[in-house]
Task: structure prediction
Amino acid sequence: MTDVANKVREILAEQAVIDVADVADDASLEDLGIDSLGLVESIFAIEEAFDVQVPFNANEPDAGDFDISSVAAIIRAVEGLVAGRT
Amino acid sequence: MKRVVITGQGTINALGADVARTKEAMREGRCGIGALDIRDVDRLTVKIGGQIKDYDPEALFNRQQIALYDRFTQFTLISAREAITQSGLVFHGELAARTGVVLGTSGGGMQTLDENYRSVYEDGKNRVHPFVVPKLMNNAAASHVTMEFNLKGPSFTVATACASSNHAMGQAFNMIRAGMAEVMVTGGSESLLCFGGVKAWEGLRVMSRDACRPFSANRNGMVQGEGAAVFVFEEYDHARARGAEILAEVVGFAMTSDATDIVMPSKQGAARAIAGALKDARLAPEDVGYINAHGTGTAANDKVECAAVSDVFGHHADDLMISSTKSMHGHLIGGTGAVELLACIMALTDGIIAPTINYEEPDPECALDVVPNVAREAEVQAVLSNAFAFGGLNAVLALRKAG
Result:
């Protein structure tokens, strides 16, 4: 388990008001009870935590490279952004 | 109840510095949205807006006035001058006492706030200009209109985010209807195109970086605009007695609250406001030929608004025209309903329906006649103007052709 993955799970857990241990990799944001406002707040927290820019527009959530379909997908996407950080 | 008519209109916005030029741009389907020219724009991810270009306040206001007038107040006064000049009214004595001002704005003196926060936080200054408070307060514009035109009746400012202007004009309408005032100067203004103003909106991730495309399947968000529009609402018999030119009659108004979510719109809340305005105006759904949509160009608003219109109008929803002029002038937030009322009046007086520009791909969830890309000639007898604000506060006005 990488540091990035742990931090992302912490952010999502805080948003969903659940234990980090309950943030399953295959869970969707909906499963966690995170709505659209919770999502933009989570993305803000991710940007602040990793000093990255997340390409996300609430009007076209499926556009762009930032996959939000599951916890594992979000972790992969954040890892990609962190790796590309200059 | 008294009848209420419109006898003057004025504006400045990204499409034009007066009503004639704004209407011309709407007829031509011209886009007023372009690259933002503001300080620190390189630190923004959203770099476009419906900004008023070639603006020269020194040509319109003296040094003392500029020291007191935030940009949103300047826009208001420019619009009020045009509207009151057109109405032909001069205010003194009993008429002055029976004329008030109700204006909408969301951010008020945001430019003043932005400049002075920058000065104390970023530049580390410990002193600000003495007029910061009277310049930034939300009622500054309304108050300066009362002073410039000697209007001594009931005046105040309404702040309900994107519905501010419609709420303001609804109050003005009902005050004349109830006999509280003879004339009301009403509308709204906004000037949020500064670093802090745009940065705040960026955070919500609902802004488009390239264009406002209401109802189009490829829409990707809203685009901010700035400016104002002001109208003279007048009691019908008063206008008739002095032989004033009547542009249109205000016949109905309704407001509702979604009571659901701070940003997501509700079909029921919107539908109740639309139906309420029809009922208040004693209009049948079939009477309405045009709706100026809230039409922000966000995924959520446009589909919810179309569903609400379909619910209220039934089969007639397919026969009426509905367009979003935000595609041209941007979203003026607290001033938007006022600028959009210009399109409603143009439909009634000129028989021209302003288009929804940037329309590229049909969206099955917005399957109404959105007057795509090109203005249309059409005789309409009654129109509606929708405004649905963040916070779930909805306000819909109904207008009818004069005469």
